[in-house]
């Protein structure tokens, strides 16, 4: 899938950039930030120690945070820690994707001043990492456990992603509330989407019913993409739009139904997060 998307658009998938930190560098930065925050705000010291400072690695800290977010009176955090640990061991790329998502958040969200903010407090980041666990379990045939985690993700974060849906790396769910992604949806690398985005299905058949979102796409707040349609790499869809047909790579679309208002742009809207530029301001819906 990545090779096809890259060939069609000229955009590559996730690649580390020169300013990106290594896994160990990110973990050291997170520990430094947590220590400084604990010193500045003693009320948070116990929370920061149990979540970050008491752990020896990024993945152990992430495991602890996700397990405690998903825990319920009948699904214990100790059970979830073991489940997540096993998933990380069986598929190390889950941790690599989490690091890419964290870097994407730090790069693209101007409200993200620290890596600890993303790890501890940004529910869009936490929700997509929990989905990666559920997706792994779904692929291993543990579908009922995957669905149970999907339900808890929805309750905890107000983000509802079917465990079969596929996500690339460098994903930013900004604010994230109300994001819904259906079973056969495919989301490429470096995609940014805001709150209340729906990647919804059409029909009752067993084939592909949901959208494919290419690398580097920006989906504005409240966008709905419905059915087996493709949003091409580098495309941008304006807030509140409804997409029901394919959009070419590097296009800009807005409206209900969405109409293309610009083509051929080589900018990466997922990076700029600009929801205003390129739209016709007097566009009549």
What does this structure look like?
There is one protein chain. With 285 residues, the protein is α/β, with parallel strands linked by helices. Helices cover 42% and strands 14% of the residues. The chain is built from ten helices and 15 strands. Strand 14 (251-254) and strand 15 form a beta hairpin. It is globular, with a radius of gyration of 19 Å. The protein starts with a helix and ends in a 13-residue tail after the last helix. The mean pLDDT is 92.
Short description:
By secondary structure, the protein is α/β, with parallel strands linked by helices. It is built from ten helices and 15 strands.
Q: What keywords describe this structure?
A:
285 residues, alpha/beta, 15 strands, 10 helices, single chain, globular, five-stranded parallel sheet
Following the backbone from N to C, one meets helices and strands in this order, namely HHHHHHHHHEEEEEEEEEEEEEEEH
Number of strands: 15
Please count the helical segments: 10
Strand content: 5-15%
Helix percentage: 40-55%
Structural class: alpha/beta
Distance from first to last alpha carbon: 34 Å
What number is the mean pLDDT? Answer: 92
From the spread of the alpha carbons, the general shape counts as globular
Instruction: Trace the largest sheet across and list its strands.
Output: 3-6-9-12-14-15
Provide the low-confidence segments as ranges.
Answer: none
Q: Could you describe the largest sheet, including whether it forms a barrel?
A: 6 strands, mixed
> What gyration radius follows from the Cα positions, in whole Å?
19 Å
């Amino acid at each position: 899938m990545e090779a096809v998307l890259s060939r069609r658009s000229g955009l590559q998938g996730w690649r580390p950039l020169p300013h990106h930190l290594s896994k160990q560098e990110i973990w050291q930065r997170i520990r430094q930030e947590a220590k400084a925050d604990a010193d500045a705000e003693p009320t948070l010291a116990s929370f920061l120690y149990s979540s970050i400072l008491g752990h020896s690695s990024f993945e152990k800290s992430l495991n602890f945070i996700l397990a405690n977010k998903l825990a319920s009176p009948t699904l214990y955090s100790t059970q979830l820690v073991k489940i997540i640990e096993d998933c990380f061991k069986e598929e190390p790329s889950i941790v690599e994707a989490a690091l890419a998502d964290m870097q994407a958040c730090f790069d693209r969200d101007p409200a993200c001043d620290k890596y600890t903010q993303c790890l501890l407090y940004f529910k869009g980041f936490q929700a997509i990492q929990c989905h990666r666990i559920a997706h792994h379990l779904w692929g291993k045939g543990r579908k009922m456990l995957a669905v149970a985690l999907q339900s808890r993700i929805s309750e905890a974060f107000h983000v509802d992603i079917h465990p079969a849906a596929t996500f690339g790396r460098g994903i930013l769910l900004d604010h994230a509330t109300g994001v819904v992604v259906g079973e056969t949806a495919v989301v490429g690398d470096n995609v940014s989407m805001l709150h209340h985005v729906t990647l919804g299905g059409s029909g009752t058949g067993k084939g592909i019913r949901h959208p494919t979102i290419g690398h580097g796409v920006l989906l504005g707040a409240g966008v709905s993409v419905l059915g087996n349609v493709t949003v091409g790499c580098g495309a941008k869809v304006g807030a509140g739009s409804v997409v029901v047909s394919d959009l070419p790579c590097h296009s800009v679309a807005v409206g209900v139904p969405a109409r293309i208002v610009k083509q051929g742009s080589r900018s990466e809207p997922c990076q700029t997060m600009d929801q205003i530029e390129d739209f016709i301001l007097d566009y009549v819906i």
